[in-house]
Specification:
elongated; alpha/beta; 222 residues; 2 domains; single chain
Length: 222
């Protein structure tokens, strides 16, 4: 009888110890989860604030057209995406971010390593081609369309503390890239700060003659 009582006590003690361990495990897990959640929110907000203060959004890509019409430079956004949505590879993203941060006032184009330029630009070409795919379907169906050849290139303009810096994939008509019409004059500008864009396009035209593999050509049908 004494043995049975001791066995019962031992089982009760084991059960009690197990219950305590389970409770401790659950409490620790809950506290850790809450702490990680709160720290994650704090860290995310801290990083967001730092990016906002610096006005450097290297995790965004704007694809835009640079149009010269009626004597004006007209900048029109085609799309804006996260960098992950355009460059579908971590290595390519790292290259683009590194090249973006290396841009200067005098060198606004992204100098991607030579062996990787086509592959990186091809990500942008695919995004642009998808956006304008309807025009090519019309052409294939025999519907009259307008066809324009554009050069695609990557920039990250350094334009002052008050302006936002982003990775910008630019479209410029191929003929304008080859013979830029404003090498030493200015077109009319829709906004005064667009003078920086003219300087970027000048630099692009100059660089095209030396390093054409920094550019990729695409035919757009609309």
């Amino acid at each position: 009888m004494l043995f049975a009582d001791e066995t019962t006590d031992a089982i009760a003690k084991i059960a009690s110890d197990s219950a305590q361990k389970i409770i401790v495990t659950v409490v620790v897990s809950a506290v850790t989860t809450v702490a990680a959640f709160l720290f994650g929110r704090y860290w995310g907000r801290y990083k967001a604030q730092k990016i906002w203060d610096s006005k450097e959004f290297f995790d965004r890509v704007i694809i835009s057209m640079n149009i010269f019409a009626d004597g004006y430079l007209k900048i029109r956004t085609v799309m804006e995406r996260s960098i992950q949505e355009v460059f579908l590879n971590r290595i390519a993203i790292d290259m683009v971010e590194k090249a973006s941060k290396a841009c200067t006032v005098d060198q606004p184009l992204l100098l991607i390593p030579k062996a990787d330029r086509w592959y990186v630009l091809n990500f942008v070409l695919n995004a642009v081609a998808e956006h304008f795919s309807a025009g090519h379907v019309k052409r294939d169906a025999g519907v009259p369309v307008a066809s324009v050849k554009y050069a695609i290139f990557l920039t990250c303009e350094v334009v002052g503390d008050e302006r936002i810096r982003k990775v910008r994939a630019m479209l410029l008509r191929q003929d304008l890239l080859e013979n830029f019409p404003y090498t030493d004059t200015m077109p009319q500008l829709e906004n005064p700060w667009h003078s920086n864009r003219v300087e970027t396009l000048r630099k692009a035209s100059e660089l095209y003659k030396k390093e054409p593999d920094l550019f990729l050509m695409i035919e757009v049908c609309v």
